[in-house]
Each structure stands twice: as C-alpha cells, then as structure tokens.
Amino acid sequence: MLEVDGVRKAFDGRAVLDGVTFSAAPGEIVGLVGRNGAGKTTLLRTMAGIFRPDAGSVRYDGLDVYRVPEARARLFFVTDEREWLGHYTPKAFLALFSRIYPRFDREAFWARLRAFDLPPNRKVQTFSKGMKGLFYLSLALSTGAEGLLLDEPTEGLDPIYKKEALRLLVEAAAEARPLIVVATHRLEELEAIADRVLFLREGRIDGEVAVEALQTRYGKWQVALAEGVGPEALERLSGVRILARTGRVMTVLVEGAPEEVPGRLREAGALFVEPLPLRLEDVYVRKLGGTPDEG
C-alpha cells in the first residue's frame, strides 16, 4: 500500500502541494488529473522520493519513501522528460536496472523491445519522441517494481502504439499487480484503464470518482428552457453545472440520482430534458472549473 499523508511542498515560498492525502493499493490504477500547474508532477516526484516533503509523509508498506532507500527501490518513476539517461542504450539500461531491481524481467524487456521495434544498441536520446515513450514504459513494466508512477506515459505515441501501451498497463495491473498512478491530461485514456481518478486542484485533492460509478453518480443532460427562464434558474440547483449554452438550450452536468434529475430540471423551468452520453471530461470540468462553452 502506498500512502500519501498530508504532504506539503513549496518552492520559493509558493505552496505547490498543500496537504495531499490519498492511498493506492496493489493492482489498482489511479488516475491523477488537474489543470496546468496543479502540482501533478511535483506530487509524483515527491511520491518517488525525489523531493522531500516539507510536511507530511509518503509511505510504502509503512516505510518512509524519502528516508528509506529500500522503500524507494520498490517504486519506479517515469518522468515526462524523455531525455533521462538518454546517453544510455537500452542494453546499458538493462545492465544498470537489473542490478537495482532484483525482480527485473530480462525476457520481458527484450520481448517488448522487439515488439516495439526499439534498437537495443542505439542511444535512447537518438530515438523519436514516440520511441522514447515506448522505451521508458517498457523499462518500467520490466523492472518488477511494486509501484509505478507514470507522468504522461503515452505522450508522443501514435494511436496504434498508444492502444498497445494502455493494454500493457491494464495487463500489468491484473497479472503482476503493481499499483499504478498515472498523471495525464488524456482523460479518455483514464476512462479506459483507471479504477478511480483523483482531481488535483491548487495543490489539494479536490475529490475523486470511481470510473465504474461515473454513470450512477453523474448525468449529462440537454435542456431547453422556457421563454423568460434564464440559466441562473439551473445554476441555483444543487449539484448542477452548465457545460455549454446556445440560446435557451443548455448542456448540464448533474450530480445525483439520475431518476430524480428530469423532475428537478423541469421544476426549474425546463421544457425539454434529454440524457446525453457522459464522459470523464465532463466531470473534470465540473470539478476543476472553466466557463461554459457558448454557441
């Protein structure tokens, strides 16, 4: 179990993390989302033991990750900076990390290099952006680490390789059962692979949602308001956020029991109410802000 407890971190007097608390269990894929500057990368680096928390702690199976090297060695962090040890070849990476990680799977590593057509004797810094992303993900999955901390792991991948990378993550979680924390802006990917998603806002966890429970906890609706009824009639309702507006037609996200929503919206002045397909992106907007799109 990876436990983040009240973690605070500041740089030059500016708080980047402000009391972050959550946990992740083996076999679980946890998504971490937030707007630019919310602190996602700083949080991952702190979880990996690269940054020392100013307050609070990160523990793996009860061991402080920053203070105990054995705890750090059970985790593997993939940065979004694709030049990390770029002067190494894949073969050199294998020699180094097979000494650090006793469960390193050499056969799986070579198999992934072949599957993605990654040359073992070329320096990684000469790879394309997509090839680098595939390589670092292949390395992470081969280490046998008990926890994988991934920062934008599919950045630069074409659609075919992206689909394969996501498949590998899901298989790893199901078979080897590492805990996996993924920070990304690609919400559709988390919708496909994550068990739950944490919303990071101004250095704090501002709620979470289980992906399987999206459809029961939230609903997306198209609403046509009666003449003379303004959008404020909907905004006054608890748990309602307007996502888009074209004249008197609104797209709204509503938190609450779906069977109660049409009646609530009609009481507020809606003439027409129709359910729409819900995406994780809609909940992201609800949680983390932004103004309604206007047509």
UniProtKB/TrEMBL annotation:
InterPro entries given in the database record: AAA+_ATPase, ABC_transporter-like_ATP-bd, P-loop_NTPase
Q: Where is the ABC transporter domain?
A: 2-227
Q: What molecular functions are annotated in GO for this chain? A: ATP binding; ATP hydrolysis activity
SUPFAM superfamilies from the UniProt entry: P-loop containing nucleoside triphosphate hydrolases
State the PROSITE patterns in the record.
ABC_TRANSPORTER_2
Write down a Pfam family by its short name. Answer: ABC_tran
Keyword flag Nucleus: no
Give the record's keywords alphabetically.
ATP-binding, Nucleotide-binding
Show the PANTHER family listed in the entry. ABC TRANSPORTER ATP-BINDING PROTEIN YTRB, SKFA PEPTIDE EXPORT ATP-BINDING PROTEIN SKFE
Q: What protein is this chain from?
A: ABC transporter domain-containing protein
Q: Which organism is it from?
A: Hydrogenibacillus schlegelii (Bacillus schlegelii)
